[in-house]
Amino acid sequence: MTSVPTTPTPRPWVLLFVAVCLVAANMRMTITGVGPLLDQISSDLGVELATLGALGAVPLLSWAIVSPLAHGLSARLGMERAVTVALLALIAGTVWRSLPGGLANLWLGTALIGASLAVGNVIMPALIKRDFPGRLPLVMGVYTALLGGAGAISAGVVVPIAGIPLGDGTLGWRVALLATGAAVPVALGVWVWAVASRRRASAGIVVEATSAVPAGVDPDGSDPDGADSDDTDAGSERRRSGIGRRVWRDPVAWWVALYMGTQSSIFFIMQTWLSPIEISRGYSAEAAGTEVMLLQIIGVGSSMLVPLCFRGRLRRSLPALIPVLGSLAIAGMLTVPALMILWICAIGIAAGASLTMSLTLMAVRARTAEAATSLSGMAQGVGYLIAAAGPVTFGWLHQMSGGWSLSLGLVLALCVVQVLVGWVAGRERSVLAGSDPA
């Protein structure tokens, strides 16, 4: 007699939730810790600071290149194995980046870190959609808050770590960068444990079900003539590949991608240039750095606002309302710079909520986990390509004009575009409607 599952098995969601949180906490720490150490890296390697400044764009370009490929990796390995591979690559990239030697280790290690994070960026929202369907906005909010919170912590601790005395010197920037990945092995271990527990639970409840096998079908689930009743591996692969291609022609997917691109560009512009703006207005480097930290911390808190608000009638309008606050903040920076702290708080709220809203749209605009990974890969590939151009364009406008008004005008224009895109993306529609089975 054959044993087959007859009822859905309760998933070990608590352990899986802890694993998701640990993965999220490691999705930004290895890259946000680079900026505060650029001066030390420049002095140690004898490289101009302006050249090393481009190091911050390497993860964004890696995300733009690798994100569209993550759906195919997920289709071949499965989402859980793909995340496992990404965490292993993240460990390897973090170690590689800190190895002694010239610039090659620093740049190539950073590129590998970016590629590994791209896979996690794409797959985690789809996995959350699949495993936490009844708690989607809440889990996505916690996930996003941990992205920003852990990133802020990393930016704040790398310089003290690098300055810890060791013999006649200090630990240095290499050890500090290595420390940003110290928690990745813990996340990997808990992730593997949670995935194994989930699989054991899924296989745990079985019943004797010979009588439940339909007439004309052998107990092994195949047609008596030899045809498998399920999709063949080749057929399943073709269907997954088709989803990955069709999403690039779907208008809903492009609206989500544009929303992702505008919000990412605004965030990385402010993250990169807020400190120079404040220093040019007479602030000390320490005070300017504190304001950047404030921007990140407020963004962490605002990430949790989306789960509270994304319900009822606000589901439709929230994607457009969030960047309205960002528009007011940038307009305030241009017209009443004396209230800069207020405007930084406002843009921080908008930035954190926008990121959560972007990831939530990737989940709710797809009806299946497969469609979600495809949409996430496409939207993040396009989004981070736009984001990589944002800080560069901002700096070019500043250099050309000699002031900040024209550059901040670019950010204001991006906020307005995000409002318009958010109004369209907020419509209750799904990608691949009519072609992807619900």
**Portion of residues in helices?**
over 70%
Strand order of the largest sheet: 1-4
The CATH architecture of the largest domain can be given as Up-down Bundle
Rg from Cα = 23 Å
- The low-pLDDT segments are 1-10, 205-239
Percent strand: under 5%
Q: Mean of residue pLDDT?
A: 80
Shape: globular
The name CATH uses for the topology of the largest domain is Growth Hormone, Chain: A
Q: Can you identify the CATH class of the largest domain? A: Mainly Alpha
Distance between the termini: 32 Å
The number of helical runs is 18
Report the CATH superfamily of the largest domain. MFS general substrate transporter like domains
Number of strands: 4
The ordered string of helix (H) and strand (E) elements is EHHHHHHHHEEHHEHHHHHHHH
Largest sheet: 2 strands, antiparallel
SSE layout:
Layout: E1 3-4, H1 13-25, H2 29-32, H3 38-45, H4 49-53, H5 57-77, H6 79-98, H7 103-131, H8 136-162, E2 165-166, E3 169-170, H9 172-179, H10 184-202, E4 207-208, H11 233-246, H12 251-280, H13 285-303, H14 305-309, H15 314-335, H16 340-364, H17 369-401, H18 405-425
Antiparallel strand pairs: 1-4, 2-3
Helix pairs in contact: 1-8, 1-10, 5-6, 5-7, 5-11, 5-17, 6-7, 6-9, 6-10, 7-16, 7-17, 8-9, 8-13, 8-16, 12-13, 12-16, 12-17, 12-18, 13-16, 15-16, 15-18, 16-17, 17-18
Protein name: MFS transporter
Transmembrane segments: 12-29, 49-70, 82-99, 105-128, 140-163, 175-196, 252-273, 293-310, 317-334, 340-363, 375-397, 403-425
Membrane topology: Multi-pass membrane protein
How would you describe this protein?
The chain is mainly α. It has 2 domains: 10-205, Growth Hormone, Chain: A (Up-down Bundle); 239-432, Up-down Bundle (Growth Hormone, Chain: A), CATH 1.20.1250. 74% of the residues lie in helices and 2% in strands. The chain contains 18 helices and 4 strands. It has helices at 13-25, 29-32, 38-45, 49-53, 57-77, 79-98, 103-131, 136-162, 172-179, 184-202, 233-246, 251-280, 285-303, 305-309, 314-335, 340-364, 369-401, 405-425, and strands at 3-4, 165-166, 169-170, 207-208. The strands form 2 sheets. A two-stranded antiparallel sheet has the order 1-4. Strands 2-3 form a two-stranded antiparallel sheet. A hairpin with a 2-residue loop joins β2 and β3 (169-170). α5 (57-77) packs across α7 and α15 (314-335) runs antiparallel to α16. The longest helix has 33 residues, at 369-401. The protein is globular, with a radius of gyration of 23 Å. The model is unreliable at 1-10 and 205-239 (pLDDT under 50).
